[in-house]
């Protein structure tokens, strides 16, 4: 069997890895349009801040390493079209300008997404950057030590935008984060959390300009100088646009079925409308456990699961994609937070009735001093008010208690209730935890609201 995999990020990498694990003698052709294999944009902040020194190490794999396992790796070679009827793809070699067609038995599309470009005047000015991919990482790194950069404007307050804001604030620049939404990080956390984080960012030189719409970029001598919104003008020597992503599926129109957002329609087994073409990653929807429906959740964890499962299915082992809860985590200066599933602020949009309880406590017993790592913890549990089914949770602290969210993600997937969680067995040792885990405490509080 000959399998062609398009794209070398999380989903494409895991597909190749899955095929090698189950049927290593399969003929695999792996294509990457860029000149670098498998760059991980999720590791960009660590590189920009200097924790990781070598940009080339922010990768899952190398061409040499994968070739040694029998994979035919093609970098700087782009799949520009697919002929599903004849099971061929058209390849353009950007290194030498040649073109060719390749046949396949199975095709896996891990085409991902590209940064959304704001359709406003001035978007093509110099020093308007994105934060996705190795090329942008190298350019952004140079700007962190550029003495001409005093003011940085970040557009978008999702994880990528907040990471960019923190990078440049730590580099000594004044940073403004502009977002159309009313709160920073509002897609991930409710107000009890974002109020604290927004103040923390302000204390570190990051100004929040929320509830504002970008109208234009102003420039001087071809370089950006300011960002104009419907409420103000913000000086900018550099703009980092993190205003969302769009599916990179233009070449697939008419090849496989797409939805009205350009996302590839797939079944439970990652097959597209063509049974020999599979799709994984940010250009697809995933099963969403809290609603028993589907959702768009562009996370590496989901892409990797899809890649592994696509590999099993195309090799003949039928396996459905399990539902996920959209679990994620981030650090913002001294705070660490994580969330999963549905939140009070997202339940209405998802068409779900929910209730929540909030618990604040310390990470360890009261007698453990703060100097020993005993920090305040915020934990919010969201559940169905009719039957107590757990729908999601959020947690935050200056101590790293984010792993608790993995337990909630499993509870959501298993359809557990607050009654189940109220007395679930968790270990206790004063150096790590409290006699009642904060998840127990929140669930017990939730049970009282249902009585």
Automatic annotation (TrEMBL):
Q: Which residue numbers delimit the FAD/NAD(P)-binding domain?
A: 1-307
Query: What residue stretches are annotated with the Pyridine nucleotide-disulphide oxidoreductase dimerisation domain?
Result: 331-433
Q: Which InterPro entries does the UniProt entry name for this protein?
A: FAD-bd_OxRdtase (IPR050260), FAD/NAD-bd_sf (IPR036188), FAD/NAD-binding_dom (IPR023753), FAD/NAD-linked_Rdtase_dimer_sf (IPR016156), Pyr_nucl-diS_OxRdtase_dimer (IPR004099)
Essential cofactor(s): FAD
Superkingdom of origin organism: Bacteria
Task: Extract one GO molecular function annotation from the record.
Answer: peroxidase activity
- Chloroplast as a keyword of this entry, yes or no, is no
Mention any Pfam family matching this sequence: Pyr_redox_2
This protein's name: NADH peroxidase
């Amino acid at each position: 069997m000959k399998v062609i995999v398009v794209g070398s990020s999380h989903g494409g990498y895991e597909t190749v890895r899955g095929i090698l694990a189950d049927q290593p003698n399969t003929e695999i052709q792996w294509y990457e349009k860029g000149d670098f294999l498998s760059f991980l944009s999720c590791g960009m902040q660590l590189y920009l801040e200097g924790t990781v020194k070598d940009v080339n190490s922010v990768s899952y794999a190398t061409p040499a390493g994968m070739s040694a396992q029998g994979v035919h790796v093609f970098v700087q070679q782009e799949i520009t079209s697919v002929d599903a009827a004849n099971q061929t793809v058209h390849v353009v070699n950007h290194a030498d300008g040649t073109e060719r067609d390749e046949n396949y038995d199975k095709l896996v599309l891990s085409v991902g997404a590209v940064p959304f470009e704001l359709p406003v005047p001035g978007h093509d000015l110099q020093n308007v950057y994105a934060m996705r991919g190795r090329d942008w990482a190298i350019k952004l790194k140079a700007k962190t030590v550029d003495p001409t950069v005093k003011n940085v404007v970040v557009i978008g307050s999702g994880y990528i935008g907040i990471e960019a804001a923190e990078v440049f604030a730590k580099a000594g620049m004044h940073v403004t984060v502009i977002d159309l939404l009313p709160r920073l990080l509002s897609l991930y956390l409710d107000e009890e959390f974002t109020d604290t984080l927004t103040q923390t960012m302000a204390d570190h030189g990051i100004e929040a300009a929320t509830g504002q719409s970008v109208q234009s970029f102003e420039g001087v001598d071809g370089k950006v100088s300011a960002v104009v919104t419907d409420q103000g003008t913000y000086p900018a020597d550099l703009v980092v646009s993190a205003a969302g992503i769009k599916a990179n599926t233009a070449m697939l129109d008419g090849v496989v079925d797409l939805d009205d957002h350009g996302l590839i329609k797939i079944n439970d087994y990652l097959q597209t409308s063509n049974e020999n073409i599979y799709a994984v990653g940010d250009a697809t929807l995933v099963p969403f456990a809290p609603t028993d429906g589907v959702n768009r959740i562009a996370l590496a964890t989901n892409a990797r699961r899809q890649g592994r499962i696509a590999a099993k299915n195309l090799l003949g082992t039928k396996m459905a994609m399990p539902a996920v809860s959209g679990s994620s985590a981030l650090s913002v200066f001294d705070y660490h937070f994580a969330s999963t599933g549905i939140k009070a602020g997202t339940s209405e949009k998802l068409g779900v009735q929910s209730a929540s309880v909030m618990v604040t406590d310390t990470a360890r017993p009261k007698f453990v001093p703060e100097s020993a790592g005993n920090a305040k913890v915020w934990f919010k549990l969201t559940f169905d008010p009719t039957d107590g089914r757990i729908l999601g949770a959020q947690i935050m602290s200056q101590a790293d208690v984010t792993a608790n969210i993995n337990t909630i993600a499993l509870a959501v997937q298993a359809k557990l209730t607050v009654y189940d969680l109220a007395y679930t067995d968790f270990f206790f040792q004063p150096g790590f935890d409290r006699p009642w885990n904060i998840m127990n405490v929140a669930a017990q509080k939730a049970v009282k609201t249902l009585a």
